[in-house]
Write a structure and sequence with these properties.
Elements lengths: L14 H7 L7 H4 L10 H30 L5 H39 L8 H53 L3 H8 L18 E3 L17 E3 L12 E3 L17 E3 L20 H4 L21 H7 L14
Parallel strand pairs: 1-2, 3-4
Helix pairs in contact: 3-4, 4-5
């Protein structure tokens, strides 16, 4: 014959009840709440303890979540990371949610005891409905916050991945610069989709002669004492860059943007551009007077495909708006 199982359907949620259903959680009695009895005289103390326990559980949850995020950056594959996230949700999230729900449940009982002096079990059904509603609302709210937190984490992880990819690509560009003008120009003009994203990079005191930087993004760069000699900087972006003592002599700057650029003592000698390109940069009129007409620059109208032969372009299937290549040297 089977032993008759006890009926817990009319028992309120408490650790003692859970401990009977799940005996293996008894070692965590101090964390979830023990059978300690409270009366009206120490109900306030009990409420404070329960709130403190809830806050502590949430703090531990966020600390452990932060630890998993930190560990996540050292894991190699997505499969391992995804598995770790699920394990963290089960091992960390479920106990924390249980602690919060039980603590709110017990705090509600103690608050009723403090106000009325009676046990909550003696309360009317209408008040019990309020308690159930609050617990369900708290549970659903907790699920919503957990989902929102997970969504924010995914966005953070995605943005961090993009940032790491960007740093890796910028390091490749810096390594390419060190190989010289010819190799740089050959790589950067190898196709129409080559991007020159150097945002935030420190290029101070570097010297570039004859480099192709068309449409490059130098936003936020440190260009202090950097020399651009006879470079193609057409339609490049220098927004919020630091250009103290930057030299642009003989360079092509037509269409470049200098919004909120910190320009001090820059050299525009024989640079090909129009004064309107430097609006918002605060450059002195006498320096702007050194500019020459864009059409006088050897870089005027040069596109990426002008470094290749027409045969190479046709072989690769590139479209050049019907214009023949200038077939410039790298």
């Amino acid at each position: 014959m089977q032993n008759k199982q006890p009926d817990y359907s009319r028992h309120k949620a408490s650790f003692s009840l859970l401990a009977q259903i799940f005996p293996h959680i008894r070692p965590f009695a101090l964390l979830f709440g023990s059978d300690k009895k409270f009366d009206r005289s120490n109900a306030v103390t009990g409420i404070i303890m329960l709130i403190a326990r809830t806050v502590l559980a949430l703090v531990i949850f966020f600390l452990l979540s932060a630890a998993f995020v930190w560990l996540d950056s050292y894991l190699p594959g997505y499969g391992i990371k995804d598995g770790l996230h699920k394990i963290a949700a089960i091992i960390v999230g479920l106990p924390v949610m249980l602690i919060v729900i039980l603590s709110l449940n017990q705090a509600f009982d103690l608050f009723y005891l403090l106000v009325t002096g009676d046990e909550f079990d003696k309360a009317g059904n209408s008040l019990k409905s309020v308690k159930i509603f609050m617990l369900v609302f708290g549970f659903v709210g907790g699920l919503f916050l957990a989902g929102y937190g997970y969504y924010k984490y995914l966005m953070y992880d995605l943005e961090r991945g993009w940032a790491n990819e960007k740093i890796a690509e910028q390091n490749e560009l810096l390594a390419l610069m060190k190989k010289g003008r010819a190799i740089w120009n050959r790589q950067i003009t190898s196709g129409p989709n080559e991007q020159i994203d150097l945002t935030g990079v420190d290029l101070s005191q570097k010297e570039f002669k004859g480099f192709f930087f068309g449409y490059a993004d130098f936003t936020g760069c440190n260009l202090t004492d950097t020399v651009f000699d006879d470079c193609n900087l057409g339609y490049a972006t220098f927004d919020e860059a630091v250009c103290h003592g930057t030299v642009f002599k003989n360079s092509y700057l037509y269409g470049a943007e200098f919004n909120k650029t910190d320009c001090k003592n820059i050299d525009l000698s024989n640079a090909a551009a129009v004064p309107q390109d430097f609006r918002g940069a605060g450059i002195a009129e006498e320096e702007l007077a050194k500019l020459v007409e864009p059409g006088r620059s050897r870089w005027h109208g040069v596109k990426w495909f002008d470094f290749h032969s027409d045969e190479w372009l046709r072989e690769k299937g590139f479209y050049t708006d019907g214009r023949e290549s200038m077939q410039l040297t790298f």
